[in-house]
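Appendix B. Chain record.
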Amino acid sequence: MNKHLAWFVVCWIVISGTFISCHRSEDLDEVSNTVKFQIISEIKLDSSSPFYIDFKKYPAVRNDLPIGIFDSGTGGLTVLDAIMRMDKFNNQTQEAGADGVPDFISEHFIYLGDKANMPYGRYDSEGKSDFLKELILKDVQFLLGKKYYSVPDNSEPDTDKSPVKAIVIACNTATAYGLDLVREALNEWEGGIEVIGIIEAGVKAAVSGLGSVRENHVIGVFATEGACASEGYPRAIKRQYLQFFQGTIGVVQQPGFGLAGAIDGDLSYIDPDATELRGTENYQGPGIGHPRYPIDISLMQAYNFRGGNELHIRRDEEGNIIEMELNSIVNYIRYYVTHLVVKTRREYPGGNLDAVILGCTHYPFFQQEFKDHFLYLRSLDDSYAQIIPEEIKLIDPAISEAVELYKYMQGEELLSTNNFQGSRFFISVPNPLLKSNQIDKKGEFPLVYKYGRLINQSLEYVKRVPFSKKWIGADVLARIKAKMPDIYKSMFEIEQ
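Structure tokens predicted for this chain:
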């Protein structure tokens, strides 16, 4: 097909019964996403769609609108917590410098955790990166719109949710795969809304804090499978490094397969009620002989796994371990920290692990557990001690993202002057009214169905409902309550 014919076809594709006319461009990629992702045009043009937003009615004065934040689950609450607690500016002058008052004290927030569709990090390895991008666009649509459901069984949505004045992507995987696409969509919708991603913010903090021009710098990155596969962190680190130093920097990525899911209570990765091996139908985490994340018996001392119900094993008649399943968040962390250090020793002999980025919003919940295992390995072996500094520096990108958000709102004069009470929190659950949906006995999407769905179906696979103790596991709630009590209280103010 020649270029002129291709242009003609692209410009007259019918999407959901609506003709999309295009202006000719020398670069056809400028319109490709509008065509590839039907939802971009559907949101703007198809008033019969459940995702439609009338942008002509979007509020022109936005100072008192909330800030929107979304993540694949509850991990993004660490970003919200960092934003709400930040005190790096003077509230009266807006100049740099703490004044003892939180910088965002006058703001309120809309938070969305897309728990029904998580973990986002797995979509790319399942060949579904385009479906992930569509999910990200739907997350953004929710924040921009007014609709939600008070309970999943409702067929008609409530419409008293406020649209937002800025969007923060709290999810590293969503930033890696969707930031550019979201910016393109926002430009198409002409809403004038800015979106801020988390990767660049974390990288700036890690690189600028190196503080030395010596050789053998290495930065470690813990992230989801998808975020690692995107190479978003290595590219950003190397780009930022050249702004401070000459030469090259080593980057070691360690995908945390299943860790985010375990932290958010996904039973495919841990099951607190399980007392024995669950088998490959029910357990998806690392194991002996796993094709991508094998447990190496020779590293058992380095792993230092907790036993009891946190580790399920089976031995042969001679006592050799032949099957193993991790069944606690701590054991997942110990597994991945060990492999990051082993990989660093192999790929950068003589290197120094100067900083480690916790490149998934779920991970900062467990900063101490990460640090503890680094220090355990340092004490275990001299070869590890040469890699791991006494004061291992763990980077939480959320703090840098909060600064970037403040500077944007300050520059656009979007800071609120009102003292709002209460933010709103929403979570996705499988839509029980969609006949084609597959929902298991646990109320979740089966894995084969979750990662088998196709783009451009115009279907509400999920309902966005207010946070409730019905939809979030008791262990997850207990962790939020213990580590972020103010957010926990805000989450359930309406319910209480």
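Further analysis of this model is presented in Appendix C.
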